[in-house]
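pls ignore typos typing on phone
iron/sulfur cluster + seq
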Amino acid sequence: MSTSIGLGLPASPPPVLAPRRKTRQLMVGNVGVGSDHPISVQSMTTTKTHDINATLQQIAQLTASGCDIVRVACPKTIDAEALPIIAKKSPIPVIADIHFQPKYIFSAIDAGCAAVRVNPGNIKEFDGRVKEVAKAAGDAGIPIRIGVNGGSLDKRILDKYHGKATPEALVESALWEASLFEEHGFGDIKISVKHSDPVLMVEAYRQLAEQCDYPLHLGVTEAGPKFMGTIKSSVAFGALLSQGIGDTIRVSLSADPVEEIKVGDQILQSMNLRPRKLEIVSCPSCGRAQVDVYKLAEEVTAGLEGMEFPLRVAVMGCVVNGPGEARDADLGVASGNGKGQIFVKGEVIKTVPESQIVQTLIEEALRIAEEQGLEEIEGTKAEVKVTQ
Ligand code: SF4
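k done
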């Protein structure tokens, strides 16, 4: 948690594992992408894009959960026809995701989308259309994402690499397409080289990062259901972000896209790449626990969900590590004998029976937020600035 400073000075930036890799900068609508900007979190709608109301409704939910940029699929003409209204009414920048049909690239640009994602591996005669695409995107002032994917790699490259979507193959495909855009004077490009295997994905991005200065959009593609996808994305993004690689991220889950945003946001918070909000420190419980730690931790987490205020709350099962962790947190409980010692800023303020621990922690959290809210919120804003 940021420390309150009474002199009106911004809080120091929290430590990060590595400085960001320097990239060229570009704008996706009003969101800056590149090393001078915070890492943004993206997701993709799961509605039929031509169902404009449903799509805008889901975009609103994603926006409320903290999504910075949203991508929408455009498989049919009716979807392309819906893009102007969606792009106009969406509160966050909309990227049109184009596969197979080059004509939809131009529809998306004309529709006012903030960027277009193209998959050079499956767009018909893509290389021959690059000049037109570069001109249209350049005239509209929007960037292009070259989105290479292990599952739909350009056949020529796949043949060269004996049918295997190796890291080298993914990188070669992406840089080849980027070079075609550059030949036509277009450099507003970001790149993704997604693979469903996190190890291959990490290696591909590492190689790509060494060979270019394009901003990189990280993703483990087809990562799986919520549990597995969260783990795969977290380890892969962690490996790359810890080396300063990555400018936007998308966690792909077979789940509600709002979950993707929550996971992505938490990954960035965990690495100090976004200001931390609510952080629950809870012990795993063991044979020494004298209260139901799982229940307590779940109830406290649920009771404080959505809190924007940076607050570290410790929920500990006994007196072995309990007092230490509870003291280090802004707020905490060290339990024992069916009771809980409540700590606020390192001091025991009261001892309550187990049945009142959750309610007391929630009340104290709200009281701290109310008392220090303004100062801490200002501190949070300062952190956002310095972590850019
Ligand atoms: S705090 Fe106590 S109950 Fe929790 S894991 Fe540590 S020793 Fe076990």
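The first strand starts at residue 26 and ends at 28. The two ends are 18 Å apart (CA to CA). more later
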